[in-house]
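Open question from group meeting: does this chain pack into something compact, or does most of it stay loose? Before anyone orders reagents, we agreed to write out a predicted structure and look at it together. Recording both the input and the output here so the notebook holds the full record.
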Amino acid sequence: MSRKVHLEDGCTLRFPGRSDDFADGVELGILAAQMDHGVVCLSRRIARSNLDQLRALAAKLGYRLVVGVTDDSWCHVDLVAKTERPRLRLVHPADSARAG
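Structure tokens returned:
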């Protein structure tokens, strides 16, 4: 059975008869194309085997990579363009006391 390549939440592709190496290439190619087109934030589930290449690619294309929950084969990654400023929110001390 062929491996799923995740395009976005709820949307996957399969390539019957193709190897996991092929799926790895498609997975990285999709992310590279989106980063090259300037997509500000990306969130995907990828094969752990692609993590090192994605880390290098993200650095070259100006993205921060955050690796989330992982298991033996998969991990969740978030890519955010370094040009995107962090979204900060001013919290009044009285608000934080009520939340705690």
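Observations to bring back to the group:
The chain has a mean pLDDT of 84.
The two ends are 49 Å apart (CA to CA).
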